[in-house]
Amino acid sequence: MEFAELIKTPRVDGVVLRRPFLPTVEGTLCLTGHHLILSSRQDNTEELWLLHANIDAIEKRFVGSLGTIIVKCKDLRVIQLDIPGMEECLNIASSIEVLSTLDSVSLMYPLFYRPMFQVIEDGWKSFLPEDAFKDLESMTEEWRLSDVNKDYSVCSSYPPLVAVPKDVDDDTLRKAAAFRHGGRFPVLSYYHKKNGMVMMRSGQPLTGTNGRRCKEDEKLINATLRAGKRGYIIDTRTVSVAQQAKARGGGFESEANYPQWRRIHKAIERSSILQESLIKLVEACNDQSHSMDRWLSKLEASNWQTHVKEILTTACLAAQCIDREGASVLVHGTEGTDSTLQVTSLAQIILDPACRTIQGFQALVEREWLQAGHPFQQRCSQSAYSNSKPRCEAPVFLLFLDCVWQILRQFPCSFQFSQHFLVLLFEHTYASQFGTFMGNSASERSKLNLSQKTVSLWSWVNRPQEVERLSNPLYEANCLVIWPSVAPQSLLLWEGVFLRWKRSSRCLDEAYDEMVHIIQYNKELQNKVNNLRRQLGAGEQED
Amino acid sequence: MKYIQSSVEQVRLLERFSNKSTSGTLHLTATHLIFVESNNAATTAAQEIWILHHHIASVEKLSLTTSGCPLVIQCRNFRVVHFVVQRERDCHDIYSSLLRLLRPVSYDELYAFSYNPKQNEQQREEGWQLIDLGAEFERMGVPCDRWQLTDVNRDYKICETYPRDLYVPITASKPIIVGSSKFRSKGRFPVLTYFYQEKKAAVCRCSQPLSGFSARCLEDESMLQAISKANHNSRFVYVMDTRPKLNAMANRAAGKGYENEDNYSNIRFQFVGIENIHVMRTSLQKLLEVVGSRFLSVNDYLLGLESCGWLRHVKAVVDAAIFLTKAVTVEGASVLVHCSDGWDRTAQVCSLGALLMDPYYRTIKGFMVLIEKDWISFGHKFADRCDQLDGDPKEVSPVFTQFLECVWQLTEQFPQAFEFSEWLLLQIHEHVHSCQYGNFLANNQRQREELQLGDRTHSLWAFLLREQQNYLNPAYCPTYADTHPVLEPSTLPCHFKFWRNMYHQFDRSMHPRQSVLKNVLTLKESNCKLEDTIKDLEARLQKHGISPPTPDPQASPRDQRILPTRPHSLILEAPLSRKEAQRQQEEEEEEVGEEVTECCSDTERTVEGSSGTERKESYSDLQGTYGAKAEPAVVSLEFGVARMTC
């Protein structure tokens, strides 16, 4: 299929672009296979380049022969295009509709994108499991890297290499995999250097209604316990949801078969409910009504903040079991690809200072989300505005980013990155020129050969100028465990995402720049003082 | 003054949002209730809490439990402390002493009259002369060819609750003033409060007219006419009645009411619907109940925020101020603002409006002038509203707190527009209730003169100005005023936030553990010192005949780090550096043992509790590491208070 067939009107002159809090731009609108471009064709005016993939929904309106298209983007921006000529407008609109909902992976932009920057370090090779395991090996000898999944046959959503207890052989893993949802047998997620405790994750056990058991599964997870120590299983579902799962062949670890483990149920919602929550939240944020009661009740009804609190609380609990109780933890929900990953990745942010650096956070996303098989493509193909019925869409990763932002707000000096990095990741999960978030698992990415055919987001991020932009000027390495407050009064609405387009951010940006300036100026002055002191010292010695 | 000195040992202080507690000794002095934590670890200084008696809003003795007798103390600065006293008798003694102490019946008993900050007489007098409202009107360009100073109220004869010096239109003769004042509730006739020089438009204030259903007053009508004539830019005057229409109508039955547009030529009448003091009091009470509950869910929190209506009221005040500002700055019209008596909602709207219109009021000094003018001098009844003396509980209302919150909401929207940070707002709020300084005592200027406050007490403004580096907003940009002389805030509800630092000021577990504000402020101060050091070093180098070197990137900046002391105040305790953080870690580790059994029995509690534990006042003593040694260990929360007591 050629893109040209889908574009009936590739160019319209005299189009007016209207955006809240920004000047209107009049110019020429061009449609290409992947972009909607609006250019005023004058020097030093900004051009709009919008990826079709970023468009979530459009609305058309006509007044006389003037057509208006309202474009609602996945990054929650809403822009308006006034297009002279009814036919042109209709053509443009129908092209956008088709181009923004192309299902075929082979037509996706990352496969066509050629970087305009020099790739210093190939992001596809920055965070290989082998390298991550080397760090682990330096700390403990109790774990090994197994290639039991090298052809993705044991678990289609796991990477080829996973870390498992040294004493457990591949056969045992295969059998345990057969007992876990999606073949997701328990694997190592995090090793807590301070006390040698570990966090593992998996899919739910397939106990079913008749309480099946699997000796190999028991052996696998018991192998992670120290003699005489108990561990905790954190099930991200409520007891009743977990009970219901039995009827569909799923279930949870019974006390009888796992006597060394204590099970705790939490209540993180399933993905369909999260998507609904996002839609309601964005609707509330876009409400132009000036009624305070309406705003607060809509915010409440969206339940978004409740989800944030629930996820953070569960992550704190997991971190607490490891750090405070000195116990190992296994985390799972149903599939083990959503709420499980939210919990394991956030617990690492809390526990491990390395995850709070720019590189470390990328490694975390790579390890706990991409390699761990979070189905990004399914979850992020629609955002809050889409009119189509959600299939598997859910803001699971966005909620994770929101939780990280909450911790960042509470520990503003403990993160090497600023919220810009989180916002950037949010944008790129929904629409991107990079291949990083394409596909649903390592196996899909490898089948598409993305590491050869696309550029990695990390290649872009890890250039010095980008690192500089994403850095937090207040950062001072903090080697401690950081315990966030999860009281509702401490949790805030993430304005940087949800109110980003609802206000002029100039005031806040300028204030931020001023802060950066003060910090940088301080460094300069300190350098100068040191130099003068040294020179003076040398001068006085000569005297 | 009777002097009570007693101590009770082995008192437990329960943490508000967790199941933790600390034990210590409770001391009762003539001015403070002091809790000193028993010092079990030699390495850490004991936590101390000082509570000024005037700050105590209520003391409640709960029924006896197995562990002792609980005593719950709620303070006007929103601190809530929960003690458990072992012996019921001791508890009762403290309870009854406090009840006696916290209900002073005469002004002489207030702290301000005994407070002695070791200043000489001259310093004290200078403190009171810092703010000069005559000079402030001059700054606005008054008197001028259209507005003049009148001496009708020289002896508080026309209006007891107004100041002596009042500004009225040139054309308003004495009979007009007198006639108008007789037609206005409490004699509060229309006077100038702010003059917008650029358009010669005036903001005037007054109380409601005694119009009833049909009464009219020619002098009052002439008065409004005179205000209108004093502005050539607009043919009419806006009359803003800040009350809801229903309330204003109900007042007519009592012979009061609002202006009839048929009787007043050239007015445009407008209701803006801010609720009265009783609604505001109840609303804040409900808010505090909601946020004070333990294990609050997000949904209950948001529903509570909605149903208490507090943010709705805050927004209503801001909306009214925006209306006023637009009328004056855009249309160039003069505006007359009133409510019922013209000392609550009117003060809120006039002062907030002026803050939006005039960048001067967004500076530290200017903000003090604004409060002095629109609140203190125009007779906001601080004594009644803040319950300074044992009085009518129905007169108490958080009108001024609400004003401070409106200002805070604006500082959040315009982070570069204000010279001061929220610390100043919190500190002013603290002292409005502390009765430690004379500024806010009594209900009006006349009463203040009778009490001779200027001779017998100290001024808060002098104290704040001396410490002003603590209240600076590091992001403040003085040139912001040139590009944004008038602030135009968004009034979308999503831009109004819950002011955690005010209402949970003392609940540390809720606050960020690291403060951006504090960090940047420290750096900014350090920048000034470094600049001086550089000048000094360069001068010395020159003496040695060496020219200043070129920068060397190898130098380690950390060695030279200069960390000035910060106030030991409020929400601001957060570790400055790793060193502090490490000490904190050490303390944290000591506490791990306690929690083991709790982990899974009530997970949520443990998670919140765990943060509470480490946040526990352990920071206050860490402050000491940075040369704050001049201050004794008791410098805990109310630093102004503490300084006096040592």
TrEMBL record, chain A:
**PANTHER family, alphabetically?**
MYOTUBULARIN-RELATED (PTHR10807), MYOTUBULARIN-RELATED PROTEIN 9 (PTHR10807:SF56)
Identify the residues that the record assigns to the Myotubularin phosphatase domain, covering every copy.
Answer: 123-498
Q: Which residues form a coiled coil?
A: 515-542
How does this protein sit in the membrane? Peripheral membrane protein
Instruction: Give UniProt keywords alphabetically.
Output: Acetylation, Cell membrane, Cell projection, Coiled coil, Cytoplasm, Endoplasmic reticulum, Membrane
InterPro entries found in the cross-reference section: Myotubularin, Myotubularin-like_Pase_dom, PH-GRAM_MTMR6-9, PH-like_dom_sf, Prot-tyrosine_phosphatase-like
Where would you find this protein in the cell? Answer: Cell projection, Ruffle membrane; Cytoplasm, Perinuclear region; Endoplasmic reticulum
Query: Is Acetylation included in the keywords of this UniProt record?
Result: yes
| Superkingdom of the organism of origin | Eukaryota
Q: What is the lineage of its organism?
A: Eukaryota, Metazoa, Chordata, Craniata, Vertebrata
One Pfam annotation reads PH-GRAM_MTMR6-like
- GO molecular function per UniProt: protein phosphatase binding
Protein name, entry field: Myotubularin-related protein 9
The similarity comment for this entry is: Belongs to the protein-tyrosine phosphatase family. Non-receptor class myotubularin subfamily.
Q: Which GO terms describe its cellular component?
A: cytosol; endoplasmic reticulum; perinuclear region of cytoplasm; ruffle membrane
**The encoding gene:** mtmr9
Q: Is Ribosomal protein among this UniProt entry's keywords? A: no
Q: Name one GO biological process term.
A: phosphatidylinositol dephosphorylation
From TrEMBL, chain B:
- Any idea which UniProt keywords this protein has? Hydrolase, Lipid metabolism
Which InterPro entries does its entry note? Myotubularin, Myotubularin-like_Pase_dom, PH-GRAM_MTMR6-9, PH-like_dom_sf, Prot-tyrosine_phosphatase-like, Tyr_Pase_AS, Tyr_Pase_cat
Q: Where is composition skewed (Basic and acidic residues) in this entry?
A: 602-619
Q: Which catalytic residues are annotated?
A: 339 (phosphocysteine intermediate)
The UniProt entry's GO biological process terms, in alphabetical order, are: phosphatidylinositol dephosphorylation
Q: What domain of life does the native source organism fall in?
A: Eukaryota
Which Pfam families does this UniProt record tie to the protein? Myotub-related, PH-GRAM_MTMR6-like
UniProt: substrate binding residues: 276-277, 339-345
Q: Where does the Myotubularin phosphatase domain start and stop, copy by copy?
A: 127-503
- Where is the segment annotated Disordered? 543-562, 577-631
GO CC list: cytoplasm; nuclear envelope
Ranges of compositional bias, category Acidic residues: 586-597
A Gene Ontology MF term for this entry? phosphatidylinositol-3-phosphate phosphatase activity
* Family under the similarity heading: Belongs to the protein-tyrosine phosphatase family. Non-receptor class myotubularin subfamily.
PANTHER family attached to this UniProt entry = MYOTUBULARIN-RELATED (PTHR10807), MYOTUBULARIN-RELATED PROTEIN 6 (PTHR10807:SF34)
Q: What is this protein called?
A: Myotubularin related protein 6
Organism equals: Oncorhynchus mykiss
Designated gene of the protein: LOC110535428
